[in-house]
Amino acid sequence: MNAGIVRLLADKGITSLFDIQAACYPHALAGRDIVGRARTGCGKTLAFVLPIVELLLRENVKPVPGGPNVICLLPTRELAKQVKGSGVGS
Questions:
Q1: Torsion region of 62: left, alpha or beta (phi above 0 gives left; psi -120 to 50 gives alpha)
Q2: Is 11 helix (H, G, I), strand (E, B) or coil?
Q3: Residue 44 near residue 23, CB atoms below 8 Å
Q4: CB within 8 A of 52, min separation 6: which ones?
Q5: How sure is the predictor about 89, in pLDDT bands with cuts at 50, 70 and 90?
Q6: Quick one: pLDDT band at residue 87, thresholds 50, 70, 90?
């Protein structure tokens, strides 16, 4: 995992991946489709966001002014609000 990501996570008190994150990470980095299921609060959001960030950093993708670099489709408006409110989807 990118050292910058590791530092940012450590600053937030995250020093190891949850099971769902560890299971998804290598498959997502390899470009595979993933279906994951875990209870609320088990780290599903970071399970899909961390590999996206890693790939953007690896590819040296620059932010698009006024536009998205990534679009994540979420199944409900409530989940979209939670993801946006977490600071992950901002």
A1: beta
A2: helix
A3: no
A4: 28, 70, 72
A5: low
A6: low
Tell me how many degrees the CA angle 25-61-58 measures, rounded to the nearest 5: 40
Distances (CA, A) of 39 to 60, 62, 76: 33, 34, 16
Torsion of CA 35, 37, 42, 43, to 10 degrees: 10
Amino acid residing at 57? L
Instruction: Please name which of 45, 57, 49 lies closest in space to residue 2, comparing C-alpha atoms.
Output: 57
Q: Are 5 and 54 in contact (CB under 8 A)?
A: yes
Residues 20-66 have pLDDT tens digits of: 999 999 999 998 998 988 998 888 888 988 998 899 999 999 888 88
| Angle, CA of 52, 49 and 60, to the nearest 5° | 30
